[in-house]
Predict the 3D structure of the following.
Amino acid sequence: MRKNELYEFIKLYLMTVKIKQNKKEATRERNQQLILAAAEKIFAKLGYDGASMSMIAKEAGVAKANIHYYFNSKECLYETVLENIVNSWNLGLEDVSVEDDPAVILYKYIQYKVILSIEQPMQSRLFAIEMIRGAPFLQDYIRTNSRPWFREKHELLQAWMDAGKMDQVDPNHLLFTIWSTTQYYADFEAEALLLLNKHEYEEIDVKAITQSIAQIILKGIGLSIPK
Amino acid sequence: MRKNELYEFIKLYLMTVKIKQNKKEATRERNQQLILAAAEKIFAKLGYDGASMSMIAKEAGVAKANIHYYFNSKECLYETVLENIVNSWNLGLEDVSVEDDPAVILYKYIQYKVILSIEQPMQSRLFAIEMIRGAPFLQDYIRTNSRPWFREKHELLQAWMDAGKMDQVDPNHLLFTIWSTTQYYADFEAEALLLLNKHEYEEIDVKAITQSIAQIILKGIGLSIPK
DNA sequence: ACGCATACTGACTAAAAGGTCAACGTATCG
DNA sequence: CGATACGTTGACCTTTTAGTCAGTATGCGT
């Protein structure tokens, strides 16, 4: 019975610990999230150098020194924000096999990326700023994480082409084309809205954008919009 | 003969003025260009806030105070750089009429924009940064200058479609698609090179990029690559 | 209730920013 | 040759920045 006792003890202990740390740990988690959200917003709007720690503190509703309590430096905070974004990035083209229909998969991917661009434009912009700067913080991450993902998708597209399911196009540039066309509406929102003479995107725009991009790209690689 | 005399006098006077101002005005012109070139480089690499006047001064090889002699403020310098870029921007799709072949015209435009992206990436990046910031300096310029240009091209594309020369696509999004796909290689050079596992673009890449983009977009709107 | 670790902050520092200015250098003209 | 306007600069100013720190407040376990 010793085993059982031990098990019960551990279970109780863990529960106690959890309850004990509830308030403190919850505060910790909450404030970190608050700071990260504020940082994402400010960094995306003003860039790394344009953003100041006091602005982020004000946005998050905490004292500036408190940010330094959770994050050692401005660089550290920026890096954390960026990695959080890229971590939640490459979804939307996952769990795909050669058997799937490229038209359906790619249409969904375009749709997914357009929605993300319209609804979370700041993430896209923050990523863009980092790339424009030459990816000083993200280049290691891209090398180790994005590259395998990219290779995998490259092979998938190539397999579809080999199977005669779509036209022969350079898979690299096809992926770049999908990224750039969809992210344009986040990164260049100011230009797009000014030229379209709008104040903000509407629900109907999301559909029109998705449709236009999908029409051009899918037909461009020998497919057609599904359904 | 008085008219002729006056004309000769003016001609001589202007020549004299030109000669007189040669050295000083040449220096003025030269240094302004030097400063503007340096500013373009530094602003594009580090953004508006990341760039400092002393860096630009160092890059241009002049004293910091001397920049303020030619340009009132950092904002003024930044604005001048931006407007110079956009002034030399919308070329490549000029002097086009409905009678022209859309395939030829659009292929040339894509080619032009790809070359510009590869050879002058800093201009594209500076523009991108300004747009990401919400176009605080360029929005007036876009409203008054880019919008008419955009409307004109919109009508041109619509006319081609009405004439049955190409598929029916939203002309706005078609233009956005061309811009985004071509500018991607400048703005996201870091990402593209990392994923392509290259140190820099080569001559062959320019052709491959142009070909891939043109293939997808032109076929996507019912055309094919000319010649 | 008390002691202790965690959470938090106002007030500070040193560095760097944009911008100014008086003084000096230099080409042009009477 | 002066006189004048333009070109140039080092030194300086104010403001803002990232980051620090001593000290306070707040739960938590005993």
Summary: Residues 24, 27-28, 31, 62-66, 69 of chain A lie near DNA strand C (CB under 10 Å from a C1'). Chain A is about 75% helix and 0% strand. Chain A has two domains: 2-84, 88-220.
